[in-house]
Structures are given as structure tokens and as C-alpha cells.
Amino acid sequence: MSYRVVEWSTGTVGRHAIAGIDARDDLELVGVWVSNPEKVGKDAGELAGLGRELGVTATDDKAALLALKPDCIVHTAMTDDRIFDAIEDLISFLEAGINVVSSGPVLLQYPIGVVPDELVDRIRRAGEQGGASLHVNGIDPGFANDVLPLAMTSLSQRIDQVRCSEIADYSTYYQPVVMSEIFGFGKPVEETPMLFQPGVLSLAWGSVVRQIAAGLDLTLDEPLVEKFERIPAEEDLDILSCHIAKGTAAAVRFEVAGTVDGVPRVVLEHVTRTHPEQKPDWPKPTRGDGCYRIDITGEPMMTVEFNHHGEHGDHNVSGMIVTAMRLVNSVHAVVEAKPGLVTAVDLPLVTGRGLCASHP
């Protein structure tokens, strides 16, 4: 069965989502939403950089797109700086009877214990009333720290700790707001940016810790434990998103831990550099400029390191592709799921079915 899809946003993730939708014979792109007035009226193929037209023009008219009554919206709009406004958008899609796969807000990956119960109930009711489902995922939070680690635990005899790490050089990552205002790169080290205000790390990545804990039937201590360390640049750096002056924040290592009786059992860790030679004593990928690593301590001891890079680009390019494709490839499963809020553990195995046949 083919499903009709609207792509919501054509930024760093959305452009790859358009390419992914076009690559699947069982999905039909019927509409594209853009926030930039300069993109209105442009063909989706142009916005995605495909070098050909798809016959679908972009619009900023939300009502017109909802009136198309698509089976699903692939929502990849920036949400980090407008979390609750974005949630209202998602609820409005559900109320209109439209299924949604979304890259954010990431706290909805597994919102139980992360956001107020009243908000979770409201999202569920909207889905049930509209007969539609919402699934928030991607790569991180997403596949790299929900499906992958939970699948690995199926091999365990005893589990002492599950640690999910992202270890990456963000110098070629283009998200100025995220890099400057949220992470605080290029800002004075003595200033605490948004991400490292008390409770924000647990809001952003607590969903990862809580979903793994739920999958392992763990009751965590409250609150989750947050740690971070930031270091200054040893020299001026110009990265894709911003300028980092010598002495300003240039790298960070943080973690969010779920403990049981004070013992860390589920840990989400990020090691984020803006130059590969920063902090050589911090964890580094065994190959390439970035990886996701799963370490399961127990019996047996297990480690999986997941590397990716673009065919014609680096790991930050492919990071946008895998985020987009985790959503696009989940459309069928989400449309066919029970209405409401669905997490990774609620879905059947999601694969890239049909994509080999479409390769030239």
C-alpha cells in the first residue's frame, strides 16, 4: 500500500527526508511546508538538491496542507528553540487525523517521567480522537540509543550498566542556534548556556535513559543525575556554525544517568568536540570523526560502535540522512500503529524495504 506524505520543513534534515520519500515507491510526496518565504513556490526537488523537479511546490499555508488529508506528516522542523510551540503543532496534526513521524521535540521520544503527565495524556487523547499516531525519533535521541541498545540487551545474562555514547566532532555540523545558543560554543566558559542549566539535560536526553530503563523493567531513583565538563579553545576556530575565539567554550562532555539505589544503571553520554585534537583523554571513535557507542557491562561484556559517513560528505552529513531516514522508513509502521503516542518499542521491525530496488 502506498501512503500520501507531506514533508514539514526543508532544512538540514528535511531536504534528506524529501529525497528519502522520493526513493520509496510506497510513499507519495503530496505537499511541502516551509517557514522561509523565499522558498514558497519552489519545487521540492530543487529544495532537496535532487537536480530535478518532483512536481510538488512548497508552501507556508498550514491549512492548505492539512486539507490535503495526507496519511502522514514527516515533521523535521527545528524544535530545540520552540519546544512547546512545536508540541502544539504536532497536537494539531493529530487532531486533524494525520499521523506524524517527527525528529522533535526529542523529549517526546519517550516522554513518560520527562514531561508532565497532563501533556502526555493530552497528546494521547488527540491521537485517539483523530485516529492518528505520533512517533518522535531519529538517530539521537532515537535508533542509536533506543532500538540498538535494547536489542543488544537481548543477548545479556546479567546487566550491570547500559551506556549509550555519542562521540563526535561537530566542526562541520551546521546549526548556528544549537551550537551557539544551546551548547554555548564560542561563549565564555564561565557562562552557563541553556543546555547546561539544571534539569535541561534531563529534559533533552532523559527520554533515552527512561526508555531503556522501562525496557529493562527498572525503577530509577529521582531525579536523574546530570554531569558536564566544558573546555576552552586553545586557539581561534572557525567552524561551520560559528566562530570560536581562543578561550571561549569549544568542547563539552556530559552525561545523564539513571541510578538504582545510587548505582548508575543507564547512562547517556555525549563527547562533543569542535576540533579532533581537543581533549585526547576523552573517549574517541576507533575510526572516523564520529560514532555512537553502546557499552553493556555485565555478563557478557559487550560493545558496539556504530560509525557512519556520507557517500560524498562527512559524518555530520550522514547524521542528517540517518535521522531523516529513520523517520521516513517508519511511516508505514506508524500509520498502521494503534492511535496515540508510539515509541520505538511499540513498533515492529522497521527496515529500508524497497530501497535496494530503487538504487540505480
Automatic annotation (TrEMBL):
Residues 145-350 form the 2,4-diaminopentanoate dehydrogenase C-terminal domain. One of its GO terms (biological process) is lysine biosynthetic process via diaminopimelate. The keyword Nucleotide-binding does not apply. It holds the Pfam family DapB_N. InterPro entries: DAP_DH_C (IPR045760), DapB_N (IPR000846), NAD(P)-bd_dom_sf (IPR036291). Coiled coil: none annotated. Keywords: NADP, Oxidoreductase. CDD domains: nat-AmDH_N_like. GO terms for molecular function: 4-hydroxy-tetrahydrodipicolinate reductase. This is Uncharacterized protein. It comes from Rhodococcus wratislaviensis NBRC 100605.
